[in-house]
Specification:
The structure is a homotetramer. By secondary structure, chain A is α+β, with helices and mostly antiparallel strands. Chain A is 26% helix and 21% strand. Chain A is built from nine helices and 16 strands. Chain A has a five-stranded antiparallel sheet, covered by helices on one side. A five-stranded antiparallel sheet of chain A has the order 7-6-8-14-9. In chain A, strands 10-11 form a two-stranded antiparallel sheet. In chain A, strand 12 (275-276) and strand 13 (279-280) form a beta hairpin. Chain A starts with a strand and ends in a 13-residue tail after the last helix.
Chain lengths: 356, 356, 356, 356
C-alpha cells in the first residue's frame, strides 16, 4: 500500500533496491504526446549516483525501457505508459554486514514492526533507489507540461550551516553539489568533504521553482496546491520540513508586511510563493525542502540486533554524504507529477479554458 | 473539486461562509462506535470564534445536527455519518464593503481566475469558517482513536518574534492565546494586542503532539505518515511551513547527531519525531505548523477592483489578529482525520494485529 | 463504506429510511452551471411514492434544500453542492411489527452479520428510500449534460410475463406503471393488481436509453462505459440482471449477425447498444435492468427471529407491488451520474475536444 | 485512463497486443503471503491461446517474470508486486492487412475517435491479449483468498443455442470448450466447428461460482458485491449481459416465489445467488456472463477505410471462433480481484472479525 498517487495523472511505482528492477506505470496521459527517451534518460542521469566525488560510487546505467503506451512513432497512445529500469549494480555483500541489526535513521525497524520481515537487502522498498521511478514519471510529466511553458527546477540551498545568499541556477546545474551560490560554493564543499572524511554525513536543503504556471491551478480545501505538493515533498524519505514562499518567515511578520499588494494581473510581490487560497496566482511558485543528513554513516553507532541485543553498527558501502544534490531532481519530479495531476483535471467552470 | 479526503476514513465537507450551513459526511466508520454529541460540541467550541479578547467577535452557536449514521442508541451503524452546522451570524454587510475588490492575501483573486465569479460573501468556500466541518470530522476521528490510547493535541508555539521556550500543555489549554509558555505569555499577548491596536495582524505557529500511536502506521513511498499529514496540514489555508521532529534543524546537523540510536523497543530519542521511513515508531509524533498573519487587516492596503482599477482597501469586520489559537484545534482535527485513515487500512501482514 | 462514487463528478450520499433525512454532496461540478430547484423537484417527484394506485402510499414531500454550492444567482460556484431532503412520513410502527425477525429477500440478515446490529427501522440505509439521494444527484448531472444534447430516459419494459412488444416513450411517462407498450398496458396492470390483491408482488424490468452521447466517452480496460454503468445499475438494490444493446441475445448469434457494419459515421446498426470497446460510438446507448419482485409482501413467509427461532412473518406496510415504475427514475439517475463522471474527465488527446 | 481498479487490492495493468509486453502492478498485498510462480503459470496457461482445435493458434509462452514485491523466500514483502509477461508471437503482418480500415465489432473506430490515432497493430490496448494481466493478478488474489476457503471457478454455459442443462465442473475443466454439460458437449462442439468452418464465429456464455465466501462481504449503496462484480465483468470486452443468482428469471417471478426463506444460518435457498442487499450471505455466489461472438471473422463484411471509403473487409489471422473457453479464466480473475478488494477493507464493526 502507498505506491499509488494522482487521480488524473495516475502513477504507480514498484521495485526494490536489490530486486530485478524498478519501474512506473502512468495512466491518464492524453494521446499524441511525443515521448523522448533521451529526455527521460537525461533526468535519470541527473539523479544517478556516481556523478561526482561527493556522491555514492554505485554504478547504475539506469536505462529506461518503455514496455507500453507508445505508438510506433513515439507518441503516447492513450494507454498506460510503463517504464522499467533494471538494477545492475546491487552489491548485496555490503548490506550483508548490517543485515542482522537495525540501522539508525533508517526504516529497518519500522518495516520490521509493520511487515514482520527482517530488513531487505539495501533497504528494499525503503531505499532511496526507489526514487528512480519517480524521476522517470517526472520526466514524462515534464514533457506534458513543457508545451504550456511550465518549467520546474531545483537546486541545493544549504549544506550544514552554509546557506546560499544568492541564486545562480545555471551555476548550480553544473556544480557537483548543485549549489546555488557560487560565492559560497567552496565553503559548502568543505562542509561536505569534511563530513565525508570523518565517516559522517551532513544535512542539506533544496530550493524549487516552478515557473510558467497559469493562474487557477489547485483546488479549495483538501487539494490545495501546497497540500498536494506538501504530500509529494514529504513523501521523499529524508525531507523533514517544507515551506512555500517566504514560509516560516511569514510566521513572524505583521499582516501589513506579509500580504502581497494586488495589481491588475494579480499579486505584485511573491511572499506567498505564487499561491493564494491554494490556487496558483500565475507567478512563480517557490518551495524549500529541508533534508536530514544521510542516515548511513561509517561512524560507529548504537543499535540493536534483530534479537534485541545491543550492538555497535558502522554502515559501510557507497553512500552520499549529503542528500541535496540528488534530492533536487527527485523534488522536481514530485512537483511535476503533482502539477500534471492538476493540469489534467476537467474544467473548473463552464466555458473555461480548454484543456491540452 | 478538492473537498474529499481519505480512502478508508473518507471525509467530504461542504458549505460556505454565508450560505445556509456547513457540514461533513464521513464514510468508512466501523459500526458500534459511540458518538457523543457533547464531545463534538466541545471540539467545535475550542475552534469557535468569540472566545477571547483576541479572537473575532463573530457569534456562532456552532450546534452540530447529526443527519444520519447513528442507531437510536447513539452508536455508529455502518452508514455515513452526516453532520450539519447551520450558519447563524453571517454579517454580509461587513463584506459588502469590500466586495468590489480583491482582498490582498486572500483567495478572492485566484477564485475569480479559476471560477470566473466575483468574490463570494465572506470568502465563500475559502473562508476559515470552512474548517468547522473539519473539526466536526476530527472529533469523530478522536472518538474512534481514543480507545486505542491515541491522543492528539496542539497549542500555540509562537506569535511574531515570541517563541515558547518551554511547553506547558495544561496552561496552554486555559490561556486565551493557547500559548505554551507561561513565562512568555505576557510578551506573546503584547505582540498580539499591539498588532490588533494598530489595525494589523501578526504571524504565529502551532506545535502538535500525537501520543499513543502504535508502531507501524504509515505506508511506504507516497503514503508516508508525514506525506499524508503534510497534505493535511498544508490544506489549512494560512499554513506556509510544516516540520516534523526536529525538522528544519536537522538540515544543519551531522548524521552522527541526527540519527536516533536504537534500543530494543525502537529509537531511544526523538529527533525524527516518531516516524522512520514514513512509518510510526511508537514514540510521540511531533509537528510544527507555521502560519502567516491573518490577511484581513483594517490598515489600508493597495489592491485593484474587479475591473482592474487600483484602489485602497481596508478590511473591516471581526477578524482574529492572529491565527494560532484557532489553528490549533483545526490542526488537531486534520491530524486525527489522517491517523484514522491509516488506522482503518487493512492489515499490513498476514496474521498481523487485529483491527478495532 | 460504499456511499461514494465517481472520481470527477464525485457523489457521496447519506441518510436512512427513518432518520432525520437523506442527502447528497457532489464535488467536481464546474462553476457557472444554473441549478433549477424545480428541475430537481421534478425528478424527485417522478421517483416519489404515492403517485398511483400501484405505488406505496407513503407520503413524502421530498423537498430538496440546497445547503451549499450555489451563488446567490443560482449558479454553481465551484464548491460542493449539498442537498438535504428531510424525512417526513416515517411510520416506524409498521416496522416495529417485523423488527424482531429477518425479513426474507431483505438485507436485514446480512447487515446483522456485517455490523452486529439488529435491523434498523425501515431497513435504515438498505431501504429503497436511500435512492432519493441518487435521484437528486442525477438531476444535477442532467442539468450538466443537457446543454450537450445528452438525454437519458427509462421506462418499464416488463411485469412478470408481460413484456412490451413496442416502445411508446411518451405513453410510458404518463402511464401509472410507466409501461412502454400501450397495447399491452392492460395486461401489465392486471399482473400487478393481481399480485397486489393476493398480498404478493411481482418482478419487472426497465429499459433505458441515453441519446445524444458524443463518440469517445468511456475508457479502456476497467472503466469501460458498460463497466461503470454496470456497477451503477447493479448498485440499485433489486437489480439482478443487466444487459447492453442486444445483450443476452448476442450470446446465441453468429458473428456475421452480431457485428454492426461500419459506415463513415460509425456503426450502421445498434446491436452493440452504442458502445464498442467500452467507448461510446455516438449512437444511442441502450440498457435493460431486470429487477426481482418487491421483497416485502403481506403473504406469510418462513424466517427466523433475531434469536434464531423459526417464525412466520408477514410484512405489513406501504409497499409497491412491483419496482419498475420507481426503478426507472433511479436508473436514469445512476446513468446520468456515471455519464457526468466520464464527461468531466480531462481530454483523451492533445488538441482534443474542449471540455464544457 | 481506465487501467486502475481496486481501492485496497489495487491493480494497475499495462501493455498492448504487439508491444514489448503486458503486465500488472498490485499494491495493497499484506506481507507474508507465499506466491507460487507455478500457480500463476497455471492460471495463465488456462487462458492461453492455442490449447485446442477451437482456440486461436497464436503461440505465447506467457511466462510471468516477477519484477518486485517478493522476499528471497518467495513471500510478499508489503511492496507492490509487479509481473511482466513479454509478447513473443505477435504477427503484425496479419494485422497489416486490415490496418487501413475499421474492423466491425472492434474498438478500432471508437479508439480512433477518442485518441485520434489509426488502429494499433492487433488492436493495441483493446486486444483480448490485455486480459493476460488480469489473469496474473487474479492468480495472486486466488493465493490470498484460498487460505480462507474461498474458491472461484467458471466454465462455459452455452454456445449459440446450446445451453448446458446440468453442470459437471470437473468435466468442464478437461473439455476443450470448457463446457459444463457432458451430455450436450458434442452439440456444443458442432456449433463451434460449424461456425469456424464457415469463417464465422458464435456467441457463448459462462457460469461462475464463488464458494466459501463468508457472510458480510460487500458494502451498502454503491459498493454492493454485485455492483463491483458487475463492473468487473462488464470490463471484459465481449460481455454484453450479466446476471446474479436466478437473475433475469427473477424479473418474471412473484415475490412469494423469489424470496429465499430464512433459517438460523441465513437464506435456505439460492435464488438471490448468495447476496442480499449487496452483502454476501455465506452461500455460494453465482453469476452468468453472456458474450457476443468473436468480432474477428473471415467472412466478408461491410466497413469503411480510415478515409471513410466504403470497403469490404475479411479479418484473417488466428482467432477463436467463440469466447467462452478463454473468457472463463478471465471471469474468474475479475471475480477474485474484486473479492480481494472487499477482503482487504478494514473491519465493518468494532470488535469485528480480525483480518488475515
Amino acid at each position: 500500500m502507498g505506491s499509488l498517487t494522482g487521480r488524473y495523472f495516475t502513477v504507480m511505482t514498484f521495485g526494490e533496491s536489490h530486486g530485478p528492477g524498478l519501474g512506473v506505470v502512468i495512466d491518464g496521459l492524453p494521446a499524441g504526446l511525443p515521448i523522448d527517451l533521451a529526455a527521460i534518460q537525461r533526468d535519470l542521469d541527473r539523479r544517478k549516483p556516481g556523478q561526482s566525488p561527493f556522491a555514492t560510487a554505485r554504478k547504475e546505467g539506469d536505462r529506461p525501457e518503455i514496455l507500453s503506451g507508445l505508438t510506433s512513432g513515439g507518441l503516447t497512445n492513450g494507454s498506460p505508459l510503463a517504464i522499467l529500469i533494471r538494477n545492475e549494480d546491487a552489491r548485496s555483500q555490503d548490506y550483508a554486514k548490517t543485515a542482522g541489526s537495525f540501522r539508525p535513521g533508517h526504516a529497518d525497524w519500522t518495516y520490521f514492526k509493520k511487515y514482520g520481515l527482517p530488513p531487505q537487502p539495501g533497504g528494499g522498498r525503503s531505499s532511496g533507489r526507489e526514487t528512480v521511478s519517480r524521476v522517470a514519471a517526472g520526466a514524462v510529466a515534464r514533457a506534458l507540461l513543457a508545451p504550456l511553458g511550465v518549467s520546474v527546477r531545483a537546486a541545493s540551498l544549504s549544506f550544514g550551516p552554509v546557506r546560499a545568499a544568492r541564486r545562480d541556477w545555471d551555476f548550480a546545474e553544473g556544480h557537483p553539489l548543485r549549489f546555488l551560490d557560487p560565492d559560497l560554493a567552496q565553503e559548502a564543499e568543505a562542509v561536505v568533504s569534511g563530513a565525508k572524511a570523518r565517516g559522517d554525513s551532513v544535512g542539506s536543503s533544496v530550493e524549487l521553482k516552478a515557473g510558467g504556471l497559469p493562474a487557477g491551478w489547485g483546488d479549495p480545501v483538501f487539494d490545495k496546491l501546497e497540500a498536494n505538493l506538501g504530500r509529494a515533498f514529504f513523501s521523499i524519505g529524508a525531507v523533514r520540513a517544507v515551506e512555500f514562499g517566504q514560509g516560516l518567515a511569514l510566521s513572524s511578520m505583521l499582516g501589513s508586511e506579509a500580504n502581497d499588494p494586488m495589481g491588475p494581473l494579480g499579486p505584485l510581490s511573491d511572499r506567498h510563493g505564487g499561491v493564494l487560497g491554494g490556487i496558483s496566482t500565475g507567478r512563480d511558485l517557490t518551495a524549500r525542502l529541508y533534508a536530514k543528513p544521510t542516515p548511513s554513516i561509517a561512524l560507529e553507532q548504537d543499535t540493536v540486533s534483530l534479537d534485541g541485543e545491543a550492538v555497535k553498527i558502522s554502515v559501510p558501502g557507497r553512500h552520499d554524504p549529503c542528500l541535496a544534490p540528488r534530492l533536487a531532481p527527485v523534488a522536481e519530479a514530485m512537483c511535476l507529477i503533482t502539477l500534471a495531476d492538476f493540469y489534467l483535471r476537467g474544467p473548473a467552470r463552464l466555458g473555461g479554458p480548454a484543456q491540452p
